[in-house]
Write a structure and sequence with these properties.
It is built from six helices and six strands; from the N terminus they run βααααββαββαβ. It is an alpha+beta fold and 160 residues long. Bound molecules: zinc ion (2 copies). The site of one zinc ion has 7 residues, from helix 6.
């Protein structure tokens, strides 16, 4: 189990409606002097409609009207704006999802054979024991911990 600590504070576990996600995306883009163009809104909608991080080919599958180069460029901008989070595993495809503070705190199951990533809701028990472990780390290192990420590596149902 890999536990990494990020610096985005999750602020809810409810799946937001797309309008709110779009509004937040739009204001974050404005912060980096960018706009929520129709193509960027389309990508945000695709990512908001799924329960797992998607590769660029998967985004293109969902929206065949988008060009691959445009999806790639727009994902870079959305990532810079803090709207999208990129997950890199050891296969050739990066995967993209909405930033955790937009969609709620969750963990990942990463298949080391096919590279698929599934989102899983955190169990109350795991969050509780992580909180205790994290408090000890904070106390012994003086590091102010704001969030955590848990990626569980293994084999998915199809590959096991
Ligand atoms: Zn995720
Ligand atoms: Zn967690």
């Amino acid at each position: 189990m890999k536990v990494s600590v990020g610096c985005t504070a999750p602020d809810g576990t409810l799946a937001p409606v797309t309008d709110e996600v779009r509004a937040t995306a739009s204001s974050r883009l404005r912060h980096v002097q960018q706009r929520l163009t129709p193509n960027r809104a389309a990508i945000v909608d695709v990512l908001a409609a799924t329960t797992r991080p998607l590769t660029i080919p998967e985004v293109l599958e969902a929206r065949a009207d988008l060009a691959q180069s445009s999806v790639y460029r727009n994902l870079v901008v959305l990532e810079q704006a803090g709207v999208v989070h990129r997950i890199v595993t050891n296969d050739e495809f990066a995967r993209f999802e909405l930033a955790e503070d937009l969609v709620g705190h969750h963990h990942h199951l990463i298949c080391s054979a096919c590279g698929t990533i599934e989102d899983v809701p955190p169990s109350a028990r795991l969050e509780q024991s992580l909180r205790q472990a994290v408090e000890q780390v904070a106390a012994s290192t003086g590091f102010r911990i704001q969030a955590h990420r848990v990626d569980l590596m293994g084999l998915c149902r199809r590959c096991a």
